[in-house]
Specification:
By secondary structure, the chain is an alpha/beta fold. The chain has helices at 20-33, 54-68, 81-89, 107-114, 139-156, 176-184, 186-190, 204-209, 220-232, 243-256, and strands spanning 2-5, 38-41, 74-77, 94-97, 117-121, 164-167, 197-198, 237-238. Bound molecules: ligand 7PJ.
Length: 258
């Protein structure tokens, strides 16, 4: 899954795809490099970020979605029912909601009626404050219990279980140690019986593990290490910025992993 942030302030690629022309070109390049889907988002959810209005989010993503329709499978990264509805009508196939259907009570119905795929992600707290001292007794079982509950909620509201993938939410209300433990213990999430998506690309925990305690991003080399480790532990969807390099690294990992 290639990442297209149509935002001025994303932590890792803020501004590069803010103009529709650039976002479309990036998405088509990612497709050509081997991405199975591109995840288009108009609201930054990095730590400390503020929400954007529906109008602003639509203004950012709709021109991009219009031009990607029929060109590449699209995921819409939004927590808003109105944005998802418009995106799905333009052909988006998956709704990536980092709030796991908690922010907008209408989103569950929009997804259920459309028959779209859905990604449910774990987040502790909200983006503005989530990195302030997150604590868990057992991060893997707490994240799994949350995702199990959100999966049940989605299914109760008419979304087919076969259409749902689960995501530990790397960096969303977690310390460096929590993020790595979640990958080490990915089997706890896989036990829920759904595909697992991991998004570690360029995240600050990678830079911190490499020795910079104030890192706000991580390098490509470290992103590739995290993606291969997650894949080896059973993740089947990797959300990444650098598609070509990840496709190559994962192709090699796939050649040695049964
Ligand atoms: C994630 C995400 C993630 C899912 C972001 C960034 C930070 N959606 N949206 N999983 N991270 N499903 O662009 O890397 O880890 S925002």
């Amino acid at each position: 899954m290639g990442i297209i942030n149509v935002t001025p302030d994303s932590f890792s690629d803020g501004g590069v795809n803010l103009h529709a022309d650039d976002a479309v070109a990036s998405a088509l390049r990612m497709r050509d490099e081997g991405a199975a889907i591109v995840d288009v988002g108009g609201e930054s959810t990095r730590p400390g970020s503020d929400a954007v209005s529906i109008d602003e989010e639509l203004r950012r993503v709709l021109p991009v979605l219009e031009r990607l329709a029929g060109e590449v499978p699209v995921s819409i990264d939004t927590a808003k029912a109105d944005v998802a509805r418009r995106a799905l009508s333009l052909g988006a196939e998956l709704v990536n909601d980092v709030t796991a259907l908690r922010a907008d009570p209408e989103l569950v119905e929009v997804v259920a009626e459309s028959g779209a795929y859905l990604c449910l992600m774990h987040m502790r707290g909200e983006p503005r404050t989530m990195q302030a001292n997150p604590r868990y007794d057992d991060v893997a079982s707490e994240v799994a219990a949350f995702l199990e509950q959100r999966l049940a909620f989605a299914v109760e509201h008419g979304i087919a279980e076969e259409r749902i993938c689960l995501d530990p939410g790397i960096g969303f209300g977690k310390t460096v140690e929590h993020n790595f433990e979640l990958i080490a213990r990915l089997d706890v999430l896989l036990a829920l019986g759904r595909p697992v998506l991991v998004g570690f690309s360029r995240k600050s925990s990678l830079g911190r593990v490499l020795g910079d305690p104030r890192a706000t991003t991580g390098p490509l080399s470290a992103s590739l290490g995290a993606a291969v480790a997650a894949y080896e532990r059973g993740a089947t969807i990797l959300r990444v910025h650098d598609v070509k390099e990840h496709v190559e690294a994962l192709a090699v990992a796939a050649a040695v992993i049964p």
